[in-house]
Every structure is written in C-alpha cells, then in structure tokens.
Design goal:
The protein is an alpha/beta fold. Strands 14, 15, 16, 17, 18, 19, 20 and 21 form an 8-stranded antiparallel beta sheet that branches. A 5-stranded antiparallel beta sheet has the order 5-6-12-8-9. Helix 38 crosses helix 49. The N and C termini lie far apart (63 Å).
Length: 1013
C-alpha cells in the first residue's frame, strides 16, 4: 500500500530555492509542496491534468508583491507562476507545471460598498454569489450571471472576461469593471481605469514596468486601429484575451482594463477590483417553452429575440433527461409537464424583467400571443414561472447543466474542448447543424445547452478519454470546429477563454498577432506568467503556444488504473472537476469541511482527486486494491498487528507515503453525504472514504477512537443498565482528559435517565416477532406500526423515542418495536467494512421477516434511517429492508384536520435527508399544514456535528467553525421563541453543545397538537 512520492528533479530544486527564498522574504501566506494538494490543483473542469511544482496562498496584496519581486530576479527567470481563483475553467487556464498563486483562500474580502454611486471594491478571491448576497439588502447585484456563480471568483471572472445568461442586456465582465489593481512582475502596481491621454502620458512617464505597459498598449491601440477593426468580430461575446478592440472607448479615452480582462493571468496578478453594480429588477417572469426537437428550439430562438426579452437560454434533451434524474428536478418538474406520446427534446427559457410589473406583464402577454399565433415552429406548450423564487429554481437546473452532462452512464462522458463557440445569433441554427453533422461523421453523441440570444452554444462531444483512439480525436475535431466558426463569422473561444486552446490564436489574428506578442512582452518579458496561453512574448524567441493535445490529458493517467478498480471506484474517478462542491454559500449543505477550512483537499473534488491518484499509484506498485479489500474483510483484527505497529512508528518518524495525505483528507470528511445528493456527477465521498480507511488500516494502526465509535451501538445497551454510574464516570475530569488526549474524543454524550420500559408499558408497546404479527388480522395490521430503534434516540434521547411512541399510539395505531440491533452506520463511517456487512445482513434478515407482514417499518433519526436505503442497498441489494422516515409515515397516517392556528415553526432539516431525500422535507410541511400549523424550512448548511465527527478531538475546532457559519446565526435568531425544530439527533446535540439551547424534534410539535385535541 505504500505510495512513495517521486524524487525531486533539477527543476524541483530550482523551485525549492524559490520557495525557500519566498519564505525568507517575509511572505506571510501559505506555501504548499505536498503531493496531495498539488494533485488536487492539477485539474480543473477541462480534459487536462498538469501537476504543479507547488502552490502559494498569499494573505494580502503585499504577499503578491513579494512573489512578483522575487520571480523577477535573474536567478528565477525560469520560474513559472499562474494565478488561480475558483479553478473551474474548462480549458486549463489555471493549470501549470510551475507555481500556482491561489488568490481565493485568503484574499476574499468585500472591501467597500458604495450604494449611492453603485459600486463595490473587492479582493479578487471574492465569489460572485458572495458579493451578490452582500449587495442584495441594498437592492443591487453584480452582473453578468454565470452557471458557476456559487464558486466563481471575481478574479477568475475578470481573467476570463466571463459572461453568461443575459449578456445581451448586461454585457461581459469588462463592461462592469471600473478600476483594477494589478501587481506586475517585479512588484510594481498598476491602477487601471478609463483615462484621458494626459493621464496616460503621466503613467508613461513613470520609471517602472507599468510605464512600458502603457506605452505598448497605447501604441497598439492607435497604430493598429484599422487592423483591429477589421479582425475583431462584431459579436456580443467578442473575444477573451487580449481584447484590443476596447483599448479605446467610444469617446476616445484609453482603458487598459480591456486587455487585463480576459488575460488569464498571463499579464499580471489582479488583486483588487472596483466594479459597477446594478439595481435588481423588481419583477421577473420566465416563459418556459417546450419543443419536440432541439433544432426547433434553436430556430425559434432566432425569431423570439426580436421580441426583446432579457435573455434566452436553451437546453437539449440529453441535459433535460439528466436533470430529471437529479435532485434539482424536485423543484422544477411542475414547469415542464411531460406528454409520453410527444417527449420534450428541447426547451427555451425566456426571461422578461423590469421595475414596472404592468410593463413586464404586457411584454409577457404579447410574447404568449406570439407563441399562440406563430406556426413557424412546432411547440409543445409553455409555462410561466413568476417571481424570483420560481425563476431561481429553474435557473438552478440550467446552471447544473455542465455538471449534469458529466453524469451520463458509461465510460464515455461529455468533454469540454470545443464548447464555447460563438457565432452571430442569426447564423447559430445553421452553424449548429453543421457542427452536429461534423460530430455525427465521427459517430459521436453530444450534449448541448447555452445562450442562444448571444450565439453561444455549449457543445460537448461524448468521448472515453481513457481510450487512446477517442482521445486522439481532440485535435482533428478542434481543428475543424475552429474552421467552422470562422466560416460562420464567429470564433472558437466565445466565453470560457483560450487556455490550452491558444494554438489557434495566430491563425485567427493573422498580422495582428505580433501586437499581442508585444503586449505580452511588455507585461511579462521572460514568459513567466501562465506561459503558452494567448500569446508568447517576442522577447523570448524560443517561447511558443501550447498545442491542444500537448499537455497531459486526464485520460492518459486514468487508463493506467485497472479497469476493474476503475469501475469499483467509479463514484470517485468520474469526478469531472466542475467544482459544484466549492459552493461558497454557508447556508447550503454542500461540503461543510471545505467551507470551514478553505482547503481544497477537504472538498469532494479534492478527495476524489486524491483517491484517483492513490489508485493509480497502487497500480504502479502492482497492488490489487480489490484483492486487498477481500483479504481485509476475511482477516481478523489482530492480523499483522506487529507490522502495523512498525509502520505507524515509521509514519510518526516522517515516513513518506502518499496514503497518509489521503488519510488526512478522508479523516476531515463529515460523512454527511451531501456530496452524494448534490454533486451533479454523484461523487459519494463517504462511500469511497470507508473503503479507503479499511485498506489503510490493514497497514497502519487504528486510533483508539475508531474502536470506541465503531463499538458504541454494541456496548451502549449494557452500559445503559447503569446510566448514573456511566454519566458520572464520563463526566469525571480525569476520564475526560484521557478521552481527549488518549482516545481522541471530546464531549462524550450522556445517557438518558428516563425509563423507556415504563413508556412502552404505558402505551402497550411490545417487541415485534413474526409470531405476534402473524396473529394480527388484516384490519389490525393496517393500524399497526413497527418502530426500528437506533442507539442514539433510544439511549441518549429516550424522551424523544417515548414521544414517538405516544404520538403514534394517540393517532390510533398499535406500536411494536423491532428488536434492538446495531444499525452499523458508525462501523461503515470508520471503515470497519466486514463488521458493517455482517450487521447489514443480520438486520436485513431480521427486519425482512417483519416486513413480510405488510406492516410499515419506521425509523426516527434520518441519518440512521437512510442507511437502510443507501448503504444497505449497496451491501445486500434487494434484501435491504424498506424503513420509512417519520414524515413519510405521517403522510399516510390519519392526522386530525385543524383550522389554521397562525402558529409558525421554523425547520432545520438534517443535511443527509435534505440532500438525499429532498422530497421528504415537504412531507413535514404537509403534516403541519393538516394540523393548522405552518412550517418554514430555513436555508441552512451543516450543523458541524454529523454523528461523531464533532466529538473527535482532531475535528472539534472545525466542527465549531461549521456550526458558527450557518446554524449559530439561525439559532440565535429563531430559537428564542421556541419555534425552532430540527430532526437530526446530532444536530440537536450540536445546538445544545455549542449554545446550550434545546431544540425540539418536529414530531414533538405534532404531538403537542394531537394532545391538545
């Protein structure tokens, strides 16, 4: 299992010296050379994989200046530096074999908001949605709208001159950039904005690199004006990098931001930006039109543009079908009704917005009348989504299109390498038809979505990049698509930048290309900033643009992984890097460990990347991980104990093993399974985490806390016989010290003192046996429920379990308890896979015998209950028992119907339930509604406890950070009136632990209403 890192090369020695000098120069940020983080940063959302030498994370612009000054020293002219933001590019823009300068980890503050003048000043690591959340209370927002807006940084948007939905109205990023603060090589700072010639002359008079930059850029703008006008296309999307056409504004003033926007980090480090912001339209209506054919949708869009909507977005059938299988469809299905006889194969989303509701409604009315009388295209129908909330849900589906395309079945997946072509909108339908003919000639399938109003359609050919023959198609298809776009008056790179597709730049720019080279040389004379992209400096004759198939492809490394292993670990290895897990929003459940640490190894993408590399390295050393798994499950706990002790000692002494880096990343995972529900590609970290831990601990000793956690469900029934003694022991200071510093556990929960047997006796609750159930009549079985116990609510929250018995009994049902047996979830989380499988088989057989009487099995805690339909289903298949969540049973129960009481409760759902069974959340609301209550579901992230995660010493600090990011403010705001409810045991425990407050389970409110009669 040992995967040693490769020895340093001569190039690595140079980078070692650079990083050592950087630390000695006062750099205050983070410097990382570990193989794990470099592996995570080696990919983006493109087809490429490029391992950097290191990564640095500046704390402020002063740190960036130190990096730039040091790199300009003659002995470091061979050092390559590449700025990075969210790392979600589709063309390898931020990939490098040099040093990544990550401006997102620390430099992410909103510095100033000027509401009166409608501008903001931000560090470039700020995420777009983060900015818009801060602007929303002021009625403002920053345009344009990106599909990656919840993880795209402002710096990344500037460096790719990003556009997106609504660009025909709102333009591109550069249209909203007022000032930029850029650090040049050598450390000089350029503050760029619109200037008159006198101000430009003042900049040129300075004695630094900035002066040379202004002289060069102004010379190009003035001397090549006609050539620029002839070559640059009159498109909404125009070009990304370098936009010479806008160096001169319409009024003749000079604007260096034109070339900095879209420069992909090849000219300097943009550290701050002042941006103009716009009023949020008060009213919006989205018209959702369905078509029987995708080309019908495209041709119709051309005519619909004449009606002047804000935007027109289109989605093809492949994306639509994938969306229907995704969590996102739960919120939008009503807007896309299906007719089995005529399936929807394309949709257009047409938005109308404005401040005057009457005006917006008039536009929509006229638009609908057009749809009704126009017969040029066959439409299947349309729906209206009125208001911000409805539109947000639909656009969330559209935004997930990139990720969803990565979730097609099979080894061939849609690949982004010719997917942001732009042509005049009037040419789009004909262009796409030829594009499709081209791909059809290769026998390829593809998915499409995009911005038809701007002439941009994202087309992703489906290829298995592990197959050398299919990977070899990248170059010829790219060549032909580049030619096809020029034929139709467009360009290959209309939205997502050039990156590693820059080889087509000289052919497109022709005799203007030397001007791009001169500009690059003025900024970067030694070709150190993101070299090989956009242009090469004329000052370095040997420099050249990188070819599209020259950089190592992910598939080249992937094909070295044994096919059996690849298929077994497909949840990890199919991660396409779309970055949905980098969601900044603290009130979203996706990956709390990433939000708390800001370390990309602690994200689903990071952990998937590490597992993929680990599998590859195992294969290099001829280690069969599948055989090792079988051996691990058939061995015993004492097997190889001496060897494990030696290896663990070697680790403490600094032994190099990539497995340790993977272990540290996996140990930081909460196993909340939000990734499994929310990732468009369904990357399931807890699944492969458990399998990795199982194998890792065949070589290294387990910490004591693993055994304490794994055995808890087995030992707690015996310890619960003496609850006062147990609680006193666990509360004793010496025991707490030993738990924290030896066992690795803190804040161990205490046993409930309530007599559960008395509660069972009061409500006539017995143990379910096949014999008892067989004696019931069919009518009695219809009024019977079997409760499946879990260790946590049974022994630590006994009063809640008792309330559940009472509620069901008061509703007129006979309650039986399934015999208590360990569920096995703690075993699975810690990687005790053999023991978990044993528990799963035992429980499946036991519960299966009870289930045979057609009496519902109902759990209580969502995390424990969902194990039966998730992990059990993977382990025992069809034998897995069907265990309902409480609200799923309540939806079928005979609840009393009450008049509206006006009482409002606020709900914090468990994150596993919310992201993996989203439809179940609404069932609580329906139950409350029947009782005359209102239940508002609060947008929330993770509580930070997640089972035992928050009780582990190594994770306690991160657990508190996670809680503070989302739950703590919500608890402070809503817990004071007693109207806050949460259905996760660990969630309620965390609130009590962090804030000392008691939060009810939603069923306890239902019980109060039923008791009240």
């Amino acid at each position: 299992m040992i995967a040693l890192l490769k020895p340093a090369t001569g190039q690595a020695d140079l980078y070692d010296r650079f990083l050592t000098a950087l630390a000695g120069a006062g750099f205050a940020g983070d410097i990382a050379r570990d193989h794990g983080l470099r592996t995570v940063l080696a990919t983006d959302n493109s087809i490429y994989q490029r391992l950097p030498q290191a990564a640095v994370f500046p704390r402020d612009s002063g740190d960036v200046e130190i990096v730039a000054r040091l790199a300009a020293r003659p002995e470091f002219h061979s050092i390559v530096l590449t700025p990075r933001g969210g790392g979600t590019g589709t063309n390898g823009q931020s990939l490098t074999d040099g040093v990544i300068v990550d401006l997102s980890r620390h430099m992410n503050r909103i510095l100033e908001i000027n509401v009166e003048e409608r501008w903001v000043r931000v560090q470039t690591g700020v995420v777009k949605d983060q900015l818009n959340a801060a602007l929303k209370p002021h009625g403002l927002f920053f345009a344009p709208e990106l599909s990656t807006s919840n993880r795209a940084t402002i710096g990344g948007m500037i460096n790719t001159d990003a556009s997106g939905q609504g660009s025909c109205t709102y333009g591109k990023t550069r249209d909203h950039v007022l000032d930029l603060s850029t650090v040049l090589l050598g450390g000089a700072r350029v503050y760029s904005h619109v200037m008159d010639d006198q101000a430009v002359a003042a900049e040129q008079a300075r004695n630094d690199r900035g002066a040379e930059v202004y002289r060069c850029a102004q010379g190009i703008a003035d001397e090549q004006a006609q050539l620029i006008k002839d070559i640059f296309p009159p498109l909404n999307r125009c070009l990304t990098g370098y936009d010479l056409a806008h160096l001169r504004e319409a009024d003749g003033r000079f604007n260096l931001n034109s070339v900095l926007c879209g420069s992909e980090g090849s000219l300097g480090f943009i550290v701050e930006a002042r941006l103009n912001v716009l009023p949020i339209p008060r009213h919006s209506i989205l018209v959702n039109v369905r078509y029987a054919g995708f080309m019908d949708a495209l041709r119709d869009a051309k005519a619909l543009m004449a009606l002047k909507p804000l935007s027109i977005e289109t989605v093809d059938s492949k994306v639509l079908m994938l969306a229907m299988q995704d969590i996102v469809w739960h919120g939008v299905a009503e807007y896309f009704p299906e007719n089995p006889e005529t399936p929807t194969l394309g949709i257009n989303l047409i938005e109308f917005s404005g401040d005057d509701l009457d005006d917006v409604e008039r536009q929509v009315h006229g638009f609908v009348e057009h749809l009704q009388r126009d017969t040029s295209v066959v439409r299947l129908g349309h729906t209206l989504a009125v208001g911000h909330a409805a539109m947000t849900r639909i656009y969330a589906m559209r935004k997930r299109a990139v990720g969803l395309l990565g979730n097609v079945k099979g080894e061939a997946r849609p690949q982004p390498f010719v997917e942001d072509t732009a042509v005049p909108p009037e040419n789009l339908a004909d262009f796409i038809q030829e594009f499709r003919d081209l791909l059809d000639s290769y026998g390829l399938q593809y998915g499409m979505f995009g911005h038809v109003d701007a002439g941009v359609l994202h087309v992703r050919p489906i290829l298995d990049m592990k197959d050398p023959a299919q990977a070899a198609l990248i170059r010829p298809i790219s060549d032909q698509v580049a030619a096809l776009t020029q034929k139709h008056g467009g360009l290959l790179w209309g939205e997502h930048g050039k990156g590693l597709r820059s080889q087509y730049v000289p052919g497109y720019f022709g005799e203007l290309y030397p001007s791009l080279q001169a500009l690059k040389a003025a900024f970067d004379p030694h070709n150190q900033l993101n070299p090989g992209k956009i242009a090469t400096p004329a000052t370095v004759p040997a420099a050249r643009l990188t070819l599209v198939d020259e950089v190592e492809l992910r598939g080249e490394l992937d094909r070295t992984i044994d096919e059996r292993v690849w298929q077994s670990y497909e949840s990890a290895v199919h991660c396409n890097g779309n970055g949905a897990c980098y969601n900044y929003d603290p009130n979203d459940a996706m990956c709390p460990s990433w939000k708390a640490t800001r370390d990309r190894i602690h994200s689903p993408k990071g952990r998937a990347s590490l597992i993929r590399e680990w599998l590859r390295l195992q294969g290099e050393q001829n280690i069969d991980v599948l055989a090792a798994s079988i051996k691990a499950r058939s061995g015993n706990a004492l097997s190889g104990l001496l060897d494990k002790a030696r290896n663990s000692l070697a680790r403490r002494r600094g032994q190099q093993d990539f497995s340790h880096e993977v272990y540290d990343a996996m140990a930081g995972c909460l196993a909340c399974k939000s990734c499994a529900g929310q990732c468009p590609v369904k990357v399931n970290v807890p699944d492969f985490r458990s399998r990795f831990l199982e194998l890792y601990h065949t070589r290294y000793l387990r910490p004591l806390k693993d055994y304490l956690i794994g055995s808890l469900e087995f030992t707690i029934p015996y310890l619960a016989r003496f609850p006062r003694l147990y609680n006193a022991t666990m509360s004793a200071r010496p025991v707490r010290y030993l738990l924290e510093h030896v066992a690795g556990m803190v804040d161990s929960p205490l046993l409930s003192l309530m007599d559960f047997r008395a509660a069972c006796a009061r409500w006539n609750v017995g143990i379910a046996t096949p014999e008892r159930l067989a004696a019931l009549s069919p009518a009695q079985r219809e009024r019977t429920v079997i409760l499946v116990q879990d260790a946590f609510t049974r022994y630590f929250e006994t009063h809640l379990a008792a309330d559940w018995l009472e509620l069901i009994s008061r509703l007129g049902y006979q309650v039986y308890l399934a015999p208590y047996a360990p569920n096995g979830k703690p075993l699975q989380v810690q990687g005790f896979m053999a023991a978990f499988e044993k528990a799963a088989h035992y429980n499946s057989q036991t519960l299966g015998r009870l289930q045979g009487f057609d009496i519902p099995l109902v759990g209580l805690d969502p995390a424990m209950t969902l194990v039966y339909r998730q992990e059990y289903a993977k382990t025992v298949g069809a034998e897995a028992p069907t265990v309902l969540l409480p609200q799923e049973w309540l939806a079928t129960a005979q609840l009393p119907e009450r008049e509206d009481t006006g009482k409002v409760f606020r709900f914090l759902p468990h994150c596993t339930e919310k992201t993996n069974e989203p439809g179940s959340i609404g069932l609580w609301q329906k139950a409350y509604s029947r009782l005359g209550l209102k239940l508002d579901v609060l947008p929330s992230g993770c509580c930070g406890m997640s089972g035992t995660y928050g009780h582990e010493t190594r994770n306690a600090g991160t657990s508190a950070i996670i809680y503070a990011q989302s739950w703590q403010p919500l608890v402070a705001r809503h817990a004071t009136d007693g109207g806050l409810v949460a259905d996760g045991y660990s969630c309620r425990s965390q609130v009590k632990r962090q804030d000392g407050k008691v939060v009810l389970h939603p069923l306890q409110v239902v019980l109060q209403q039923v008791r009240a009669g």
